[in-house]
Amino acid sequence: TDPALIRNFCIIAHIDHGKSTLADRMLQITGVVDDRSMRAQYLDRMDIERERGITIKSQAVRLPWDGHVLNMIDTPGHVDFTYEVSRSLQACEGAILLVDAAQGIEAQTLANLYLAMNADLHIIPVLNKIDLPAAQPEKFAEELAGLIGCDPSDVLKVSGKTGVGVRELLDHVVQTVPPPVGVADAAARALIFDSVYDTYRGVVTYVRVFDGHLGKRERILMMSTNATHETLEIGVISPEPKVADQGLGVGEVGYLITGVKDVRQSRVGDTVTSAAKSATDMLAGYEHPKPMVFSGLYPIDGDEYPELREALDKLQLNDAALVYEPETSAALGFGFRVGFLGLLHMEIVRERLEREFGLSLISTAPNVVYRVVMEDGKELTVTNPSEFPTGGKIAQVFEPVTKSTILAPSEFIGAIMEICQGRRGQLLGMDYLSEDRVEIRYTLPLGEIIFDFFDQLKSRTRGYASLDYEPAGEQEAELVKVDILLQGEAVDAFSAIVHKDKAYGYGVDMAKKLRELIPRQQFEVPIQAAIGARVIARENIRAIRKDVLAKCYGGDISRKRKLLEKQKEGKKRMKMVGRVEVPQEAFVAALSTD
Ligand code: GDP
Ligand code: MG
To answer: What is the CA radius of gyration of the chain?
Structure first.
């Protein structure tokens, strides 16, 4: 395809403002999906996306329109997946910034707009959902125009649901988004913006070609690893994979299959070139995202450890933000310490591992990364509470902080400030976006906002507040490690690093929870919460004499055997902590967040 006829754009917006629905209408109006095959949020292909009604992965689709080729990328909206969005932006020249005409600008509207501006994209401001009775297109067109610095009349108005205005929007994309520029006869350079492991076809690599041409049956070179492969299949997504034997030229977006099974051969952010005529310079890749939250992941059945490792390798291919390394826990056995971008990311990863790879997992309480400076000047990076030094030699502890932006109607300013203050926030500033809408900026410890902060914010503002945050360095804080002891023995999986003001609460809650969850044993089991040697909470599980066989009156042998077997079964699902038998379910329940 002549690059002059190509337009590459993405749809960006706050979560639920209608990106995926607008993408649906575009699929339909351009004729790539017929009415019969249409289903809502067509591009949300993973079960978990469909069930939760959210987009997790960006999806690129080729659409024919008015003699042109449009490559449209639908993106996720949640703050945890900003990294996914910023990658998609690099494959585009334009972005549709979509705003719900009944809600107005929200936190991720701003965050995504800034990302698109940094990527030098042409921005098309669009109000969506104008079919809603509660829509206020005039008011929010003004708000949006004020933000972007255009005239309110330049803001397009559409309904992704009814399709009103979508044709005009597609025409507008053709007229205003610049075509890709690249050198057609230069050595090929294509950016890998995503890849996925397919059981039947091996690694499928998604690319955007910047210069030159990639063909079928061509030897290609992955520039960062110097590995060469042959392209067995090359094609475009529209909206299902379609083989394109003529290959991909300047500005085109598509996929490659090389038959490679080793997932490490195809790295997101790498540049693909031709082995025969190699490019000398790589394209600017992606900055590697820094994991913000860590948690231990363990197979419930210890024998599944190798499967867990393999599943993580494969998932990482499709989720470049995922990092992990092996760790062992006295209580839980062999597992991994896994880094995530946030709690939603953590939930999704765990769910994908369980669903796509058939594993049953336990995850330990998530924590952020701390930097501990010892009195002798030594420094430690702590991603796991068990690495937190005990004893009195700690000089300083630093925790990560964020710059958080909250958007809400101005009547909630008081409530928002109260929540932020309660979480050690420091007010940075406040701006009115319009008469009754305010943007409040705070420095907040990351450890304070990743847990129920957003839920609290939502409930105190009747659902009207939205939140975005980005890392903003670290600050010194008074943090301590709380250990939970069973019969005097610390259970590593239950340790947590918390602010000293919250240590007591954590200890009391955990001890109470465990008293409920751990069955009585043959002997008394004290549960204690402690900071170092200082006990801050205590509970007791009373002893019981349980002799199941006593019930059998010695008569029925087969019944006796059955009972013994049942008891053995039960034992298998027990973990021993010292002499104490802790059922697997107790770990799962105690570590669950609610
Ligand atoms: P995304 O998170 O930005 O991808 O948003 P979705 O496309 O998943 O849409 C979120 C919700 O808004 C869904 O319930 C849609 O049915 C609804 N929605 C999307 N576009 C429109 C629209 O134009 N009009 C109305 N009334 N509802 C819409
Ligand atoms: Mg979506």
So the answer is: 27
- Residues contacting 250, CB < 8 A, separation 6+: 3, 180, 181, 182, 183, 184, 209, 210, 211, 212, 213
Q: Whose CA is nearest to atom 6 of ligand 1?
A: 18
Q: What is the pLDDT of residues 270-284, one digit of tens each?
A: 899 999 999 999 888
Query: pLDDT tens digit string along 190-249?
Result: 998 888 888 788 888 999 999 999 999 999 999 988 889 999 999 999 988 999 999 999
Kindly report, residue by residue over 550-560, the tens digit of the pLDDT.
555 555 566 66
384 is in an annotated binding site: no
Contact 16, 77 (CB under 8 A): yes
> In the structure, which protein residues have their CB atom closer than 6 angstroms to any atom of ligand 1?
13, 15-21, 41, 53, 55, 77, 128-129, 131-132, 159-161
Instruction: Confirm whether pTM is higher than 0.80.
Output: yes
User: Is 68 within any annotated ligand binding site?
Assistant: no
Name the 3-class secondary structure at 209. Answer: strand
Tokens found for residue 394: 């700690």
The response to whether 130 counts as a known ligand-binding position is: yes
By DSSP bridging, strand 6-13 and strand 94-100 are parallel
Measured between alpha carbons, how far is 465 from 456 in angstroms, rounded to an integer? 10
Among protein residues, the one whose CA lies closest to atom 2 of ligand 1: 16
Q: What's the chain's average pLDDT?
A: 88
Give pLDDT, residue 564.
59
| Nearest-CA residue for atom 10 of ligand 1 | 16
- DSSP percent split of the chain into helix, strand, coil, nearest 5: 30, 35, 35
Cβ 51 vs Cβ 155: under 8 Å: no
d(CA 140, CA 493): 49
Residue bearing the bigger pLDDT, 128 or 35 = 128
Tokens standing for 345?
Answer: 């990311």
Helix (H) or strand (E) holding 473: strand 466-476
* For ligand 1, mutation pick of 10, 12, 14, 16 (most atoms within 8 Å of CB): 16
Q: Is 159 within any annotated ligand binding site?
A: no
Residue 129 CA, ligand 1 centroid: distance in Å? 7
CA–CA dist 366, 450 (Å, integer): 9
Question: For residue 175, which phi and psi values (nearest 5 degrees)?
Answer: -75, -35
Bridge partner residues of 401 (DSSP): 445
Q: What is the pLDDT of residues 100-113, one digit of tens each?
A: 999 999 988 998 99
What pLDDT score was predicted for residue 407? 93
Choose among 449, 406, 409: nearest CA to 14.
406
What pLDDT does 565 receive? 63
- pLDDT higher than threshold 60 for residue 561: yes
- Which residues are within 8 A (CB) of 224 and not within 5 positions of it... i.e. 6 or more apart? 267, 270, 271, 282, 285
The total of other beta-carbon atoms located within 10 Å of residue 382's CB is 20
- Tally the C-alpha atoms within 13 A of residue 49's C-alpha that lie toward its C-beta: 19
The model's pLDDT over 323-361, given as tens digits with 9 standing for 90+, comes to 999 999 877 889 999 999 888 889 889 989 999 899 988
Distance CA 420, CA 448 (A): 9
Rounded to 5 degrees, what are φ and ψ at 576? -90, 125
The two three-digit tokens of residue 350, written as one number: 């765990």
Q: Are strands 525-531 and 574-577 parallel, antiparallel or unpaired?
A: unpaired
What confidence score (pLDDT) does residue 551 get?
Answer: 53
